[in-house]
């Protein structure tokens, strides 16, 4: 079927007047000979936005290769069919699978969530829609709190403003974690069958869905406030908070009150949800410039630290004053935050072990993705805890046996696994505030905590190189070239061995990842991004001092760039 025929078939089932008008105009221009319009039309229908372990995520717009109401309807109907199939006889006996749906402040998030609730209810499921736009961690909490069979969060997290997505969690034996294989492929097959039937407009809908009570949000607030009630050192803490135009502040502000922390100075320009993200072109705290307004506010307020959530509040960024950098403020890396929070978790596990009179903490573990700092393993070993390295993403980290804390270097932290089985930037913020307040109580700062960690566990340094591409095949070619001719050195550091995870490795499932172990204990991991058109290299070293670690990571980064340039 040609792109034009596909577009006409799409128009016949699209309930959205905006995308219908967009596609009708594009089709008309293409048929009049507009080459750019024809190319755009081809791109929209040459492929289908893939459903995988990250659910769906992509640019808003008409077409099978975009996020829109047709694609969401097909996804909801496919997920409903999967859940009914899994329920089997119990569904036939009237025990309807339960799905809870949440949404953030991005464009069309509420529309997609309401469509999903109507379609789930129309398919015979019990559907519960969260009462308003809320952080992703509240949805992840709701799946477990309600004993749901599945959860859907409509969000594209920290992606560019014109993106949206569809994130799926499973209950039961999955315990409220994100989907993994084979569930992703089974759901995708059901979605494809719905799409092949060809008429999303004919899918049964019902207004018989429920709206979750406020008591559900209250329960999340109470559970999260209990992560780290404010110690005496919290009094007088001067700090700045930004929600990055997202949905974090309303929920976090209630938790701060309940936990007893002083209110922050707000970055007013970014505190209310706004799907246009007017002050940031890329609403990700990791991106250059994204926290400039927060730093400006911190300078004016004489703050001791800055805390930021990304737009759906599942990630946490932290910054501290540093006269050595331009502007006087420095954002901590995801690894630095993760190692501090892992240290906190290990100490809590050790304290619990001592209180229970045990010689060990049987089964308790720290976990992180294989691209995150190896320093977490050192922390785990220091406290006699188990350690697990997983594939990237909290769909894997959250499944680590006995986990009491998990993190990934991309600003994701799981500090309360008994409550939320996903990264949670709000509970992580509370844990970080508690750690900093405890240090203040003994006259120490966040900078002192970082130094104490280094003195206790060693001088770890990390870096990351990202290559953004317009053509995804470029990433495939680079990965293939590295496999065909593996490097023997990176810069002047010899490669001792390479773990290729394409077919799985040890207890790790298959993944498109190359892990290179270098002389002197350095490490380079290469993988395509799971959510963006990027190839990523993760670099880690351990030095004899802070200066030594800095020197090692700079040399390794230079060598890694040379390696990429040669491909």
UniProtKB/TrEMBL annotation:
Gene3D superfamilies in the record: Alpha-D-Glucose-1,6-Bisphosphate, subunit A, domain 3, Alpha-D-phosphohexomutase, C-terminal domain
Q: Which residues form the Alpha-D-phosphohexomutase alpha/beta/alpha domain?
A: 49-194, 219-319, 356-452
Family classification: Belongs to the phosphohexose mutase family.
**PROSITE patterns in the record:** PGM_PMM
Q: Which Pfam families match?
A: PGM_PMM_I, PGM_PMM_II, PGM_PMM_III, PGM_PMM_IV
Where does the record place the Alpha-D-phosphohexomutase C-terminal domain? Answer: 519-546
Superkingdom of this entry's organism? Answer: Bacteria
Q: Where is this region: Disordered?
A: 1-20
UniProt GO MF annotations: isomerase activity
According to UniProt, the name of this protein is Phospho-sugar mutase
Key words of the record? Isomerase, Magnesium, Metal-binding, Phosphoprotein
Q: Which cofactor does it need?
A: Mg(2+)
InterPro entries recorded? A-D-PHexomutase_a/b/a-I, A-D-PHexomutase_a/b/a-I/II/III, A-D-PHexomutase_a/b/a-II, A-D-PHexomutase_a/b/a-III, A-D-PHexomutase_C, A-D-PHexomutase_C_sf, A-D-PHexomutase_CS, Alpha-D-phosphohexomutase_SF
Assigned EC number: 5.4.2.-
**Record has Magnesium as a keyword:** yes
């Amino acid at each position: 079927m040609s792109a034009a025929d596909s577009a006409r078939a799409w128009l016949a089932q699209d309930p959205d007047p905006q995308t219908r008008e967009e596609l009708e105009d594009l089709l008309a221009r293409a048929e009049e000979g507009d080459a750019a319009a024809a190319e755009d039309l081809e791109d929209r229908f040459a492929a289908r936005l893939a459903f995988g372990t990250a659910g769906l995520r992509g640019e808003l717009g008409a077409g099978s290769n975009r996020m829109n109401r047709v694609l969401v309807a097909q996804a909801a109907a496919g997920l409903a069919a999967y859940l009914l199939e899994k329920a089997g006889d119990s569904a036939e006996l009237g025990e309807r699978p339960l799905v809870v749906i949440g949404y953030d402040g991005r464009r069309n998030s509420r529309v997609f969530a309401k469509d999903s609730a109507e379609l789930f209810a129309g398919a015979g499921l019990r559907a519960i829609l969260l009462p308003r736009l809320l952080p992703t961690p509240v949805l992840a909490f709701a799946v477990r709190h309600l004993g749901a069979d599945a959860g859907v969060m409509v969000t594209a997290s920290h992606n560019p403003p014109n993106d949206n997505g569809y994130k799926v969690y499973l209950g039961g034996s999955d315990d409220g974690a994100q989907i993994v294989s084979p569930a992703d492929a089974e759901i995708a097959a059901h979605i494809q069958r719905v799409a092949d039937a060809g008429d999303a407009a004919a899918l049964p809908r019902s207004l018989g869905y429920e709206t979750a009570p406020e008591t559900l949000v209250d329960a999340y607030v109470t559970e999260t406030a209990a992560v780290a009630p404010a110690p005496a050192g919290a009094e007088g803490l001067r700090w700045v908070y930004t929600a990055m135009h997202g949905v974090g502040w309303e929920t976090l502000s209630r938790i701060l009150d309940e936990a007893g922390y002083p209110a922050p100075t707000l970055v007013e320009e970014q505190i209310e949800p706004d799907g246009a993200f007017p002050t940031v072109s890329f609403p990700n705290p990791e991106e250059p410039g994204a926290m400039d307004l927060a730093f400006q506010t911190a300078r004016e307020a004489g703050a001791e630290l800055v805390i930021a959530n990304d737009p759906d509040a599942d990630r946490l960024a932290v910054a501290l004053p540093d006269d050595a950098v331009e502007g006087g403020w420095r954002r901590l890396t995801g690894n630095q935050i993760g190692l501090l929070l892992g240290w906190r978790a290990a100490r809590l596990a050790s304290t619990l072990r001592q209180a229970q009179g045990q010689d060990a903490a049987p089964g308790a573990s720290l976990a992180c993705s294989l691209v995150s700092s190896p320093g977490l393993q050192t922390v785990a070993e220091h406290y006699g805890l188990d350690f697990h390295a997983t594939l990237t993403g909290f769909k894997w980290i959250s499944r680590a046996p006995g986990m009491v804390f998990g993190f990934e270097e991309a600003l994701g932290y799981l500090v309360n696994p008994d409550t939320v089985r996903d990264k949670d930037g709000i509970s992580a913020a509370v844990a970080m505030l508690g750690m900093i307040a405890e240090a203040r109580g003994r006259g120490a700062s966040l900078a002192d905590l970082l130094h104490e960690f280094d003195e206790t566990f060693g001088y770890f340094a990390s870096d990351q190189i990202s290559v953004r591409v317009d053509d995804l095949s470029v990433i495939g070619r680079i990965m293939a070239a590295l496999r065909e001719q593996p490097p023997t050195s990176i810069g002047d550091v010899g490669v001792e061995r390479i773990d290729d995870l394409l077919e799985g490795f040890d207890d790790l499932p298959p993944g498109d990842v190359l892990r290179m172990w270098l002389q002197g204990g350095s490490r380079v991991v290469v993988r395509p991004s799971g959510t963006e058109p990027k190839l990523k290299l993760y670099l880690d070293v351990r030095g004899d001092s802070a200066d030594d670690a800095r020197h090692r990571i700079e040399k390794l980064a230079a060598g890694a760039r040379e390696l990429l340039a040669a491909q």
